[in-house]
């Protein structure tokens, strides 16, 4: 399994728009990608500008399929206009 954590910093005034776009991505991913075991948006309770997408994939093929999906490609430009700086990606190998 492969775990990915994507960190987004946004301007607080973009929170509702960011959550709407990311929420649609989460719904589409969970409904259509059997190789994705977890795909959840979380919000930092102490920092209103920070969000993370927690992702868990069966294998690299599932990661590749997600990145090639129409919903992922459509969300990218929309999310990009709402975040500050660059999204940070961390990739982990699942131990157990």
TrEMBL record:
UniProt keyword list: Monooxygenase, Oxidoreductase, Plasmid
Pfam families named among the record's database cross-references: ABM
Highest taxon listed in the record's lineage: Bacteria
Keyword hit for Ribonucleoprotein: no
Span of domain ABM: 2-95
InterPro entries (UniProt xref): ABM_dom, AI-2_Isomerase_LsrG, Dimeric_a/b-barrel
Record bears the keyword Transcription: no
Any one GO molecular-function label of the UniProt entry: monooxygenase activity
UniProt-recorded name of the protein: Antibiotic biosynthesis monooxygenase
Gene source species: Sphingomonas paeninsulae
């Amino acid at each position: 399994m492969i775990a990915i954590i994507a960190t987004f910093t946004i301007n607080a005034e973009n929170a509702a728009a960011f959550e709407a776009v990311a929420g649609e991505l989460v719904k589409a991913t969970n409904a259509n990608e059997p190789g994705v075991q977890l795909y959840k948006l979380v919000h930092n309770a102490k920092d209103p500008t920070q969000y993370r997408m927690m992702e868990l994939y069966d294998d690299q093929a599932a990661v590749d399929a997600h990145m090639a999906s129409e919903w992922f490609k459509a969300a990218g430009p929309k999310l990009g206009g709402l975040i500050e700086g660059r999204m940070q990606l961390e990739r982990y190998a699942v131990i157990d």
